[in-house]
Amino acid sequence: MNSKEKWFNYFIGIDTKRDEYQSQEIRRILANMALVLWMSIMILQFILMILDQVNHETSAGTIGLFIINVTIPIYFYIQIGRQGLNVTEFNDAEEFRSFKRRALYRSLIGGAFLGLVAYFITSIILPLVMREAINAPNLRDTKAWSRREPWSASPTSISLYPAP
Question: What parts of the sequence cross the membrane (predicted)?
Answer without folding.
Answer: 29-48, 60-78, 107-130
